[in-house]
Each structure stands twice: as C-alpha cells, then as structure tokens.
Specification:
By secondary structure, the chain is mostly helical. Among the domains are: 102 residues, no CATH class; 187 residues, no CATH class; 32 residues, no CATH class. It is built from 18 helices and three strands. A hairpin with a 6-residue loop joins strand 2 and strand 3. Helix 3 runs antiparallel to helix 4 and helix 7 packs parallel to helix 9. The termini are far apart.
Length: 497
C-alpha cells in the first residue's frame, strides 16, 4: 500500500482501486505481511543471540588466555613448580564462568560448547612452553644446589676433596639437560673454583700454625706430585702462595706480639719484685741469699740487688748530686740518645753507686711521668730549672749548683704534690702567666757567677777541684798517665788526647 506524500491532507479523494480477485482479499494480504515481519524479527533475534554468544565466548577465551599468563611470574620465581602448574591452571580455568549459549540456536550452542573445549586446550598449549622453561630452571637449581653441597663438603676440615668432588659425575645427565653443550665448561669452572676454595679453606684452618703453613706452601710449590697438580692453574697457584705468605707474615707478627707481651709482663713482675726488695732493703729485712734464690729475677737484676743490699749495709746508700743531675738529664734528653734512660731498670746499677734508694724512686717517677699527658710540661719546667740552678760554667760543672738542683728537686716535688692535692691543675702551676706559677721556687737555689768563681778558686787552692766534661764525668788519670773522663758508674769513658 502506497501512502500519498506530496498532497497528503489537500488532495481530493480518488476512487478506490478495483480489487483484483487473483490476489486474495485484503485480510489475506495483511496476514502474509505479518508472517513476513514475524519471520524477519525471529531471524534478527537469532542473529542477536549468535552475536551475544560470540561475545560471551570471546570474553571467556580472553579470560582463559589471561589465566595462563598469570602463572608465568610464579613459574619464573619458583613459587609454583612445573609439576603443579597444570593442576593450578585447571583450577583457575574452573573458576572462570563458562558462556551460556542455551538461548541461542542449536548450531550456535554447539559451536560455543566446542569452542570452550578448544579454548581450554589452546590455553594449556600456551602455558606448556612456560612449564618446560620452569622445568629447566628447576633442574638447573637442583644441579646448582648439588654442586654447592659438594663444594662445601670438599672444603670441610679433614675432608678428602678428590672423593667429594667425584660425586659431581652423578650430575652429568641433569647437567646436560640443564646446560646443554655448556655443561662441560660449567663443570670444569666449578672444579677450578672449588679446588681454589679448598686451598683457601686449608689456609684458614691452619692460619695460626707456622709449621702447617710452611707445609701448605711447600705443597703448593710442588709441581710434580703435590695435592694441587692438575687442579690449579698458574694464576690460582700463585694467588694461594701469596695468601700463604701473608698468613705466615701474620703468624710472625702474632708471635712477636705475644713475645713482647710476655716480656712486658715478665718485666712488670720483675720490677714489682725489685720495688718490694728496695723497701725491704731500707727496712733491713732482705738478705742476699733470698734474692739469689728468686726464680723470676734475671742474673743482672740479682747482682744489682746484691750491690744495693751491700751498699745499704755499708752505709753507702746516699746520693751524689752530680750523678743525680746527670741521670735527670739523660731521662729528659732525646730518647734516641746513646746514653738515654728510658726504663727504670737502667737506674738500678746506680743505687749504692752515687744514688740512694729514695732518690732512685724519685728518678723512677721522672721516667714514668714521661708517658703521662702532663709529663712533657713537667719535663720542660724541670729542665729549665736545672739549667738555671746547676748549668755549666766557664769552669765546667758547678758541684754546688748540682747539689742545689738536687735539693730543689726534692723541695719542688713536695710543693707540687701539696698543690695538686689542693686541686690546682698542673698547667696553672707550670704556666708563667698563672698566679699559681711555681717558678719562684727556683730563685732561692740559683747561684750567681761570683759565687761559682769563688767556689772554684777555693777548690783549686785546696786541690779538690775536679775537672768534668759536659756530661759531668770526672777527669781521671791512670798509672801510665793516660787521661779520660769517666762516667759515675765507671763503665764508660771518653779518652782525652
């Protein structure tokens, strides 16, 4: 039926067309059109159903593919084993909702059903390479772990490296599967590295034994039938020999340190005994026999104590101011000087030979004080005082000045101790800018040139003037007329030509 358009609503109604009886009635014609429209709508619905089923299937197929990809990280890092990958994949697939095509036509429903099976199979095929790669990694990991254990066993104390390393052959099959043509090189590299580590392990295990280290070095240098023949290359052998030498050097240092520590401990013990003996000597409670029986003191120390005891018995325990001054200078002089006094042991020979036990203790305090934080400050002050009180004159040493310095030293030590006890810092006592400065203690002991000259003239006239050198050694003449300056202990001399 055609609907007029151009003149719709204005045109005069035309006569109705004649009815063709061959086309049926109008009702029949309407029925045919309805059937055509219904069939078209049904086909359109079927097409829509097919499209929806196709979309649902594509979503499912993507989800299946994604499920396989999601396993890749776990397979790569080992949190999912290759053996469990298949089951894990099926578990993930089962959790994905399958597309329902029951609303579609039978052909479409059948296609979707078959497509689901095909998508699952394709998904499984897609993850098989990942599973295979994971199997290779797991196999490599197993081989590497086994090699690591073999290496550790070979390096254990008392282990037989040859026996332990022979177990590596059992990994050849898996090694070839894991590393392919690179397995032989991998194996050799491991053997080289392990033998080098075995050598290092043996060095560490014997690092404190000189005999063992020497034996290891000899073994490393043996290129005929030594332990490492054919197992280390030249560079490795050279490196281990160098490490052995370092360990040997370390043992030498340790032994020297141990010896020094032992000697220091012995010396401290000996000094403690000597100090106790000095106190008992002053009290008259020590005998030579007891000293000679002591097993800790050495022969020289016993002789010193014997001389000290005898000097005390013979009332010779007194101090010569000149000797005291000379010893003081040697204590505070350059440490590398030939006659420098750096240890209290060097003072013992002078006890009874111009040095009393009491003054020996005072000089000992000077030696010990050098190692204290304030020792340098005190040394400088006393050295300055000695130069002002008993310095050399044009006539040589001034005996009276030496006696004055000796007396000042005792007085100063007493004043210093009292001041320190009252809480005054050492720096304030020795600083010329401080009001507590003890420099004034020197003034009463200094002698002027006139006094020195008068004393020398008096000694010269009386025949008691003794010529001394800068060290305070007295000039002496032997029976043949040879002259020399002789040290107070009589052990050193400087010949006069």
């Amino acid at each position: 039926m055609n609907i007029p358009i151009g003149n719709f609503g204005n045109a005069i109604a035309a006569p109705a067309p004649a009815v063709n009886s061959s086309q049926g009635t109008g009702l029949a014609q309407f029925g045919n059109v309805g059937m055509q429209i219904g069939a078209q709508m049904l086909e359109e619905q079927r097409a829509l159903n097919r499209t929806k089923a196709a979309n649902d299937f594509q979503d499912y197929k993507i989800a299946v593919h994604t499920a396989g990809l999601d396993l890749a990280p776990s397979l790569a890092d080992g949190t999912l084993s290759a053996a469990d990958a298949g089951a894990k994949y099926k578990e993930k697939i089962a959790a994905i909702q399958k597309p329902d095509a029951s609303y579609a036509d039978p052909v479409t429903a059948e296609n979707v059903s078959r497509g689901i099976i095909q998508a699952q199979a394709e998904g499984m095929n897609a993850i098989r390479p990942m599973i295979s790669q994971a199997q290779v990694l797991e196999q490599k990991s197993t081989v590497d772990l086994g090699m690591d254990k073999i290496g550790k066993l070979a390096g254990l104390p008392g282990a037989d490296p040859v026996k332990e390393l022979s177990a590596l052959d059992a990994y050849d099959a898996d090694g070839l599967k894991s590393y392919g043509k690179n397995w032989a090189a991998k194996k050799q590299e491991f053997l080289d590295k392990t033998w080098f580590q075995v050598g290092q392990s043996r060095l560490q295990q014997n690092s404190s034994s000189m005999d063992a280290l020497k034996a290891i070095k000899q073994d490393l240098q043996n290129t005929t039938d030594g332990t490492y023949v054919g197992k280390l290359d030249t560079n490795q052998r050279t490196a281990l020999i160098a490490q052995t030498d370092q360990y040997i050097h370390g043992v030498v240092i340790d032994e020297n340190n141990a010896r020094v520590i032992a000697e220091r401990a012995q010396k401290e013990q000996q000094d403690k005994i000597m100090q106790g003996y000095l106190v008992r000597t002053v009290a008259g409670k020590l005998t030579v026999g007891e000293v000679l029986k002591n097993d800790t003191l050495d022969f020289t120390q016993k002789l010193h104590m014997k001389s000290i005891i005898e000097a005390q018995s013979n009332k010779m325990d007194r101090t010569d101011a000149g000797i005291f001054g000379d010893l003081f200078q040697r204590i505070h002089g350059p440490a590398d000087a030939k006659n420098a006094i750096t240890s209290a042991d060097q003072l013992y020979p002078y006890v009874g030979n111009g040095l009393s036990i009491t003054d020996m203790a005072r000089l000992r305090a000077e030696v010990d004080g050098k190692n204290q934080p304030e020792g340098e400050l005190l040394k400088n002050f006393k050295t300055m005082a000695q130069a002002q009180i008993s310095g050399s004159t044009m006539f040589g040493k001034d005996p009276a000045g030496e006696q004055n310095f000796y007396q000042w030293n005792a007085y100063f030590d007493q004043v210093l101790a009292q001041k320190r006890k009252s809480g005054i810092p050492m720096h304030d006592l020795l600083d010329p800018k401080s009001k507590e400065y003890l420099g004034s203690t020197i003034d009463g002991y200094k002698r002027d040139f006139n006094q020195q000259t008068a004393d020398y003239v008096a000694r010269f006239k009386s025949g008691t003037a003794v010529q001394k050198n800068a060290k305070g050694w007295a000039l002496q003449t032997d029976v043949k007329g040879n002259k020399a300056y002789v040290s107070p202990d009589g052990k050193q001399f400087e010949e006069v030509k």
